[in-house]
Amino acid sequence: MTATTTQIKHEVKDLSLAPLGKQRIEWAGREMPVLGLIRDRFAKEKPFAGIRLSACCHVTTETAHLAIALKAGGADAVLIASNPLSTQDDVAASLVVDYGIPVFAIKGEDNATYNRHVEIALDHKPNIIIDDGSDVTVHLVQHRQNQLSDIIGTTEETTTGIVRLAAMFKDGALSFPAMNVNDAETKHFFDNRYGTGQSTLDGIIRATNILLAGKTIVVAGYGWCGKGTALRARGMGANVIVTEINAVRALEATMDGFRVMPMEEAASQGDIFITVTGNKHVIRGEHFAQMKDGAIVCNSGHFDIEIDLKTLGAEASEVRTVRPFTQQYHLKSGKSVIVLGEGRLINLAAAEGHPSAVMDMSFANQAMACEYLVKNKGKLQPGLHSIPVEVDQEIARLKLAAMGINMDTLTSEQLEYINSWTSGT
Ligand code: ADE
C-alpha cells in the first residue's frame, strides 16, 4: 500500500536506507557536471512551473540527479521504476526523504506491482512523460485516452522504446510529440556503447566473480550496445563471437575483428552468452541443447524476452539459486545452464547500470528534451522528434569543458573553404 509516513507519497522498500542513498547520490554527482549546470539554470528559470511530469526510469543514483534537476525547474514530478529489478532501494528512499520526490519503486517488485506503479504514474495526470522502454506511454495510449488532452509530449530513452513508438506512429496511434533522446549522438554513442559495454561486464562479474580472460563470449546483436559489449569483452581478454541478422552490422563486426556466425553455430562454442538485440527468443531451446555444461547466459537488452526461459525451465529438473542473481538450471540431459538476473538487464539487476559519466549526457538530453517540449507546446507535430543538433553539440561542449579537454576551431580560411564548392584540384 502507498505509505504516508512522510508528507511525500511513496512506495519504497525502506525509508531508513535514505542516508546511504544520499551519500551515493552525492558521489554520482561528481561525475555529472553537465546535468548539474542544467539543474542550476532550471533552478533560476523554472521552465517546468505548473508542469506535471511522470518519469519511468531505472531508479539509480543517476536518475536521482535527473529527478532533482526537474524538480529544481519547478516540475511536479513523480518517479516509478522502468524495470522490476533495477531499483536501488537506498536511492528511492533518499529521493523521498531528502529531496521530497514521490517515488514508487522497489527492487524485486512483481509484475503486478510494476503495473500498478505504471497506473500511479498516469494517475498523476502528467503533461510530460519521461519513459525508458515506453511502458507508460503505451499504457496511456491503450487505456487512458481521456488523458491525451493533458499531454504535451513524451521523451524516450531507449532503442527498444523508440522501436515501439515508431510502430505506434505507423499504426496512427501516436497523437502527440515524442522526443527521441536515444537518437542524440551524445546519448547513444556513449550510453549505449561505453555504458552498456562496461556495465554489462560489471553485472556479469558481480553476479559470478568469474575470470573473463580466455573465455569465449557470444554477443548477440551488434547495435551500439552490442558494439560496446563486444569491445569491452575483447578488452578483458575474451574471445568474442558476434551474432547478427543485419548484413551491414555483421560485416562491420567482421571488420572490427570479431568472428561472426549464426547462434546455431555459436551455441556450442560459447562460455558466456550476452543478448543485446531488443528481439524475442534470440537464445532458445535448440541453442540450450547444444551449449557446454555450465554455460552462462544473460541479457542486457531492455526486456526479459531475449532468452527463452520458459523452454529452459521446462527442460530443467531443478533450478537452484547459487549466488545472488545467479540461477543454475539442471537439465534433464545431465548438463546445466546458468542464467543471470532472471534474464533481465544484467547491468542493472546485478550491478548499478551505466556509470554516472555517461548518464550525465543521457539525462542532460532528457532534461533538455523536456524543456524543448514545454517551449514548443502546441507547435510540434505528433510523432518522433530528434533532439536539436545544437543541443547535442552543446552537451558535448559542456562535457569536454568539464573534462578539461580543449579542441580546435576552424580558421576563417577553413570556414570559407568548407562553405565553398568552387575550389577543387
Ligand atoms: N540505464 C542504464 N544505466 C542506467 C543508470 N545508471 N541510471 C538510469 N538508467 C540507466
TrEMBL record:
SUPFAM superfamilies: Formate/glycerate dehydrogenase catalytic domain-like (SSF52283), NAD(P)-binding Rossmann-fold domains (SSF51735). GO terms for biological process: L-homocysteine biosynthetic process; one-carbon metabolic process; S-adenosylmethionine cycle. Substrate binds at T60, D132, E157, K187, D191. It catalyses: S-adenosyl-L-homocysteine + H2O = L-homocysteine + adenosine. Pathway: Amino-acid biosynthesis; L-homocysteine biosynthesis; L-homocysteine from S-adenosyl-L-homocysteine: step 1/1. Its EC number is 3.13.2.1. InterPro entries: Adenosylhomocyst_ase-like_sf, Adenosylhomocysteinase-like, Ado_hCys_hydrolase_NAD-bd, NAD(P)-bd_dom_sf, S-Ado-L-homoCys_hydrolase_CS. SMART domains: AdoHcyase, AdoHcyase_NAD. Binds 1 NAD(+) per subunit. It is found in: Cytoplasm. PROSITE patterns: ADOHCYASE_1, ADOHCYASE_2. Its cofactor is NAD(+). GO terms for molecular function: adenosylhomocysteinase activity. HAMAP family: AdoHcyase (MF_00563). Belongs to the adenosylhomocysteinase family. This is Adenosylhomocysteinase. It comes from Oscillatoria acuminata PCC 6304.
